[in-house]
Amino acid sequence: MTHLSYVNENTDAWQTYLAQIDRVAPHLGELAYYLDTLKRPKRTLIVDVPLVMDDGSIQHFEGYRVQHNLSRGPGKGGIRYHPSVDLNEVMALSAWMTIKTAVLNLPFGGAKGGVRVDPSKLSTRELERLTRRFTTEISPIIGPQKDIPAPDVGTNPNIMGWMMDTYSTTQGHTVTGVVTGKPVHLGGSLGRVRATGRGVFVTGLEAAKKINLTIENSKVVVQGFGNVGSEAAYLFNQANAQVVAVQDHTGTIFNPNGIDIKALQKYVEEHRGLAGFSGAEPIDNEALWDVEMDIFVPAALEGQITVERAKRLTAKLVLEGANGPTYPAADDILIERGVTIVPDVICNAGGVTVSYFEWVQDMASYFWTEDEINQRLDKLMIQAIADVWAMADQKSCSLRTAAYILACERILIARKERGIFPG
Ligand code: GLU
Description:
Blueprint: H1 13-24, E1 43-52, E2 58-69, E3 75-82, H2 87-103, E4 110-116, H3 124-138, E5 147-151, H4 157-171, H5 192-210, E6 219-223, H6 227-238, E7 242-248, E8 251-254, H7 261-271, E9 281-283, E10 295-298, H8 307-312, E11 317-319, H9 328-336, E12 340-342, H10 344-347, H11 350-364, H12 370-395, H13 399-418
Parallel strand pairs: 3-4, 3-5, 6-7, 6-10, 10-11, 11-12
Antiparallel strand pairs: 1-2, 2-4, 7-8, 8-9
Helix pairs in contact: 1-2, 1-13, 2-13, 3-4, 5-6, 5-11, 5-12, 11-12, 12-13
Bound molecules: glutamic acid (GLU).
Binding site for NAD(+): 196, 227
Active site: 112 (proton donor)
GO molecular function: glutamate dehydrogenase (NAD+) activity; glutamate dehydrogenase (NADP+) activity; nucleotide binding
């Protein structure tokens, strides 16, 4: 996993977020008065999760739920199960959710949770027990009107189903709206699983049009082949782009004529990783950054595009499927080199957007068709990227700063209008 782990560039995830926030301050006028509210999380909960392992021993895991900002509505954001989860990371991820929900104008604040655990080392029964105990520990601060978790790296619809069931037990009745990304039979939404990858593709198409990049026959490289990366790769493949390299935690593969993504998906499902796939050549992990490409989709973890890698990257377009993949200093280099970056807070917002649709459907107990969901998703994403692009043109700034301007305006106007209690 070392090549996908956090690369220290003298700045951690929370500092990356703070640097992004600082860049927006000069554009906010009188609203900048309220900006400090975004420089700290509103509420932070650290929990101990004791787990009886299948062999009878007890292990303790550290879990978190951070509500970064609730000015515009209940907290919203995923739950990550990964060995590198810590408070700093969860704080940053919760803050990016605040910005993301505001860019899409969803009526939510931002939150995130996680447990420092390697889920691949647990049996299914252990995973269920861990999830149920963690849910119980954070249940005082979650709820359909308070804070609504969802999947993230290392979690999935089954885990959301256990969370919903456990929370419901504490309430004495079924509460489907407490989490999103649930299995469809438990109040989940059609289209949710594929929504994040779809959003990456849809915003990618819009950006490509703007910079006159033809998708057909363009070369795409994808880092991460989980829920987000595999769907984005599949959709680019369907649009006749060539996905020439893919990296996951088991290695990196390259095929200059394009990888058959459907075949790769099938292989990864069976082998839990792409290593050994016969439809491409294995290459060194670091060589990924030198592959000739038009579009790069980082869809793994944060802190991947360092200054040094930014100098090597040949892509014209970077689509941030992951949260926080680019260091601020690397951001500057890419922009200087004329690379267009569709930032995470819009590029990967398809997931939380369909989470919003799921929450609305749960509230109404009325469910939409997959077509309806995809149409609404595409419409919101296309509108959001058009708004961000217009702001970037107006302020002559990057798409990231433009997205932050739009989001911070919405959040800080809400803050101003609500006032500060007790005044
Ligand atoms: N974990 C996803 C994200 O980072 C989805 C969050 C959600 O659906 O609430 O955006």
